[in-house]
Amino acid sequence: MPAATVESMLAYLTTLDADQLQTILENRRDALRMPWPSHMSALAERLFNHGSVIDAYNRIALPHVEVLGVITLADRLKRKVTAENVAALLDGEPEAVQRSIDHLHEHLLVWPTPDGELVTPRTFPVVGTRLGVPVRTMLGQATLATLRSVATKLQLRGDGPLHEVMARIGDLLRDAEAVRRLVDTAPEDDRLLILDCATNGTPVVYSRTLTGSYGTTDNPKPGEWAVARGLLWADYDGFATMPVEVALALRGEQRLPFHPDPPTFEPYPVETSHLDAEAATNLLRLLELIQILLNSATAEKIPLIKSGAVGTRTIRALAKDNDAHIDQVTLALELAVALGVLVATEPPPPPKRRTKKSQLLQDDQGLVPGSGAASWLQATAQERAALVLAQWFVSQYAMLSDPKVGGDIGQGDAYIQLRDNLFSTLEDLEPGHGADSINDVFPLLFWLSPTLPDDGVEYVLTAIAREAELLGVIALGALTSLGRALLKGDVGPTVAALFSGAHSSAVIGADLTAVVFGPPASDLSRFLDSVANRESQGGATMWRFTPDSIRSAFDAGATSRELLDGLTAIAESGIPQALEYMITDVARTHGSMRVVELGSAVIADDPTLLLELVGNSKLSKLELTQLAPTVVASRADAATTLAHLRAAGYSPIMDDKARTVQLSSTTEAAATIDPLLTDLLVIPNADPARHAAHLVATTAESLGAEGHRFEYYNSLRGRGTNRAITNLATGHVACIEVGDQVHVVHSARLHDGVVTAWNVIADRYEDFPISQITVSEIDSGEDEFDFE
Q1: Which residues are bridge partners to 342 per DSSP?
Q2: Within 13 Å of residue 230, how many CA atoms lie on the same side as its CB?
Q3: Boundaries of domain holding 609
Q4: Which of 161, 300, 343, 458 is 20 to 30 Å from 223 at the Cα level?
Q5: Model pTM?
Q6: Does 97 lie in the same domain as 188?
Q7: More confident residue, 15 or 352
Q8: Do 599 and 575 share a structural domain?
Q9: CB 56 within 8 A of CB 107
Q10: Would 535 be classed as within a structural domain?
Q11: Where does the record place the region Disordered (predicted)?
């Protein structure tokens, strides 16, 4: 195989037309990262980079990985690396092998030379079977004395210089018929050992005989016969391995595994209306939980553990208090923090020697409303949904994955690759069809990502699917209309359509439950959550009314008339009498007593009722003392006193209106939602079609005309600050002033006394003569053009 160099890649790139180059730009995701390659030579250097090649290699499917490995094998076998020879080594149809080679061309992992040989930018491993290194490598590592000994055992001449002895042994071991005849003469145990090593590719445990030691021919070591004849070669780690040519000769055929066809699974049909209902229900519920977490953090910060995360106990408590699943709360917390709706307080400074423990506890770190909270409050449900989905889709890690289990697969490129493959697999199914179980998709995903390690993949994939379900992207094993819109980058209309079908009424039964058949509207969910306990959700969501849930509504400031009117407005068949009686009974006793936090005190208009409290043995721990006919003091704080009184069967309320803390949602807090939206804007890459046309045009220029970076400093000396010139030289954003005009540019290239750069405002590449320009930095608007 000809040497793979950046020059050979560049030579191939210059032969492509704009359409062919566009395909490569679309397939190599780093090809158009900032700064954009403004010349074909810059593109070649970028795509030949080791990191870029490995990234592309990790994103191709199993048959393409197998072909790349066989290209390496053909080169090791000293065969001409052509499509025909590669196909001859693979157990598949030549047409299928050629399709895979064409696919690799489109990813620039393979390209042809003018004489028809295939070139790869790196040496790739042979997959699907264990094969050793070539004979020539084994021979090159041996001493002349060892080679002469092997030649003698093979009945070859061992005289002459080193290269002649190597050639004689190499010619025999590369002759498949000669190798098979040689192995047939081996003792039975040795022959079986040799054939097993050839079939499985496993090394043989074998230690070299040390110089001066006394070996015995009566009890030879396993593999010694093969090592003596060069069929196995011993290393210094206690093993002996077989050369690749010998292994292939003994297998009886030289065709390696090839899997051009992906694994399949049987999709099952799902009603589209069911998918949309499930998607709307789950997404609305997640938005509600983010709002609940914001409200909770507004009243009291959500505690964090030492690692800076919300502890498992806190998450479980939040899930229990809000009738939610732990996964829902975890995902809501992650998204709220990512959006800036919640933010961690600054960690406390190191404690001084005499710092009181109580002061340290007050300084504990926790989650509080962040800079995005006010904007979140003013956003509509559709805007909130769009923000949440956009933030999740650009995340770089699985939010429901434990790093201790998922490892590196749950973050970075591996995570993105798994997520993209899962979505593309479901997207390829007919709308309204999905997988019966996410496990059914695993074989196909492993085929699509063969280079990922096996450990942790299924766990991370399950976490990704669970997140997608909670966001309404996947439902019932199928990609929803919301998921398809997310992949296209336009969720707004779909979210609006889903939420327009949300129910604003419920069926309230005599069993004191409220049921919504389908996705409940946000206002309906908030109201029912305030007066009842949510028990289930999915296709139908149910709430249950209890005295405690109604009392909680009264605690929040509601009145019996407001509750009855609100329930009447949402009840499709009216309010059952049992629910009216329950609300009336709780209202009758609610607030008959008030607790004030003195240390604390209980206040009531009925002196007899307070005397009853003082004499109640169940309240002895409060050490109640009557201060006045209508005031009783408690040694416990107000919250403890309130809890004990309610446990004893009373219904007091907290008499402290000043404790209510509200986050302002007025225009003084945040006039619009723009800041939150702005943080999520992603500046798109260069348009592949336009950029391909531009790069093809640069091939007409002299390939040696492009200036090196240090030439910028010499050519632009005195035409701006050093930092501005550095920004321009490295392809980052800078300002170029020509006369009285200022141009914001990036991806600059110096050649022939001209700076060619992308003009952000004009939206095209332009030439700026160096003799006419002044370079400066971006002022206050720099962040707006931060492409990194």
Answers
A1: 369
A2: 35
A3: 593-650
A4: 161
A5: 0.66
A6: no
A7: 15
A8: no
A9: yes
A10: yes
A11: 344-364
Question: Residue 776: what are its φ and ψ, rounded to 5°?
Answer: -145, 170
- State how far the Cα of 374 lies from the Cα of 673, in Å rounded to an integer: 8
Q: How far apart are CA 41 and CA 479, in angstroms?
A: 41
Contacts of 672 (CB under 8 A, 6+ apart): 375, 378
Beta-carbon neighbour count of residue 613 at 10 Å? Answer: 21
Per-residue DSSP letter, 680: T
pLDDT average, residue stretch 336-341: 92
The mean pLDDT value for 568-573 works out to 83
Q: What are phi and psi of 261, to 5 degrees?
A: -100, 130
Q: Residue type at 370?
A: G
Averaged pLDDT for residues 304-331? 89
Q: Which residues pair with 201 in a beta bridge?
A: none
Q: Are 466 and 537 found together in one domain?
A: no
Q: Which of 563, 583, 603 marks a domain boundary?
A: 583
Based on the domain organization, do 344 and 456 belong to the same domain? yes
Best-predicted range by mean pLDDT among 56-70, 174-188, 192-206, 243-257? 56-70
What is the spatial distance between Cα 140 and Cα 349, in angstroms, rounded to a whole number? 63
Instruction: State both tokens at 329.
Output: 């709360």
Q: CA 506, CA 514: separation in Å to the nearest integer?
A: 6
In a domain, 20, yes or no: yes
Q: Would residue 665 count as lying in a domain? A: no
Distances from the Cα of 317 to the Cα of 18, 330, 341, 369, 695, angstroms: 59, 12, 20, 19, 58
Q: Mean pLDDT throughout 528-547?
A: 79
Specify which residues 146 forms β-bridges with: none
In terms of domains, do 354 and 418 share one? yes
Does the residue 258 lie in any domain?
Answer: no
Helix, strand or coil, per DSSP, at residue 282: helix
Give 461: exposed, middle or buried? Use CB within 10 Å, 0-12, 13-18, 19+.
Answer: buried
State how many domains the chain has. 6
Dig out the tokens for 360 from the structure: 């340290």
Alpha helices in 571-708 (DSSP H): 577-589, 607-614, 638-647, 674-679, 688-698
Q: Are 579 and 616 in contact (CB under 8 A)?
A: no
Same structural domain for residues 307 and 325?
yes
Give CB contacts under 8 A, 24+ apart, made by 633-638.
633/598, 633/599, 633/600, 633/601, 633/602, 634/599, 634/600, 634/601, 634/602, 635/599, 636/600, 637/597, 637/599, 637/600, 638/595, 638/596, 638/597, 638/600
Last residue of a domain, one of 704, 724, 749: 704
How many Å apart are CA 486 and CA 492, to the nearest integer? 9
Nearest CA to 122 out of 82, 191, 71, 59 is that of: 71
Cα 643 from chain centroid (whole Å):
45
Look at 218 and 181; give whichever has higher pLDDT: 181
- Do 778 and 680 share a structural domain? no
